[in-house]
Amino acid sequence: MTKKETSKLLSILAVAYDKFQVDSQGVKLKVWHELLRDIPYQVAQLAAKKLILKSPFPPVIADIRREVASIATSKDKLTATDAWEEVVNAIRYYGYYREKEALGSMNSLVARTVRAMGWREICLESKIGVIRGQFIKMYGQLLKRKQEDDLLPIELRESIRLISEGELKLKESVS
């Protein structure tokens, strides 16, 4: 979204909410643009309109980003039980020996959860209820982390990743 489009978005919010003010120095515009510029204007505008219809209170940046995330459709938004069903279907179709193909057939977050738990361990577990419960819990944690990460602007996510990697290298050299 361009700065001009961010300005239009703020204007929409100012018209809808009496208490929503845009400062004359443009500080609010600058901050909103910096934290929303990775979102296409049409999607941000749709999110703002939904929020206007849902809430009598003016949204903050986090509200806009959360609404954008809920609007975006993604394969990784499977419920935990749907994700488990994907695993069960892969076991039935590919079996124990075709792990690579089975993981390739799954959505990325389901496959990540399965890799973390171990394909063979899932396939060989006799107490399916136990492994199902463990999968659902782990999938839920990974999904929550992914949804939180998706709320951050791409540049901020990248900066955090770089800082994190720098800290890891620092810890390794100290040890």
Task: Give a structural overview.
With 175 residues, the chain is mainly alpha-helical. It has helices at residues 3-16, 27-36, 41-54, 61-71, 80-94, 99-105, 108-117, 119-124, 128-151, 154-174. Helix 3 packs across helix 4. The chain is elongated and about 65 Å long.
The structural class is mainly alpha
Number of strands: 0
Order of helices and strands: HHHHHHHHHH
Computed over alpha carbons, the radius of gyration is: 22 Å
Report the sheet-strand fraction: under 5%
Helix count equals 10
How would the global form be characterised? Answer: elongated
Roughly what is the average pLDDT, rounded to an integer? 87
Low-confidence stretches: none
Largest sheet: none
Percent of residues in helices comes to over 70%
N- and C-termini, Cα separation: 45 Å
Put the structure in a nutshell.
By secondary structure, the protein is mostly helical. It has helices at residues 3-16, 27-36, 41-54, 61-71, 80-94, 99-105, 108-117, 119-124, 128-151, 154-174.
Question: Which terms summarize this structure?
Answer:
single chain, 175 residues, mainly alpha, 10 helices, 75% helix, 0% strand
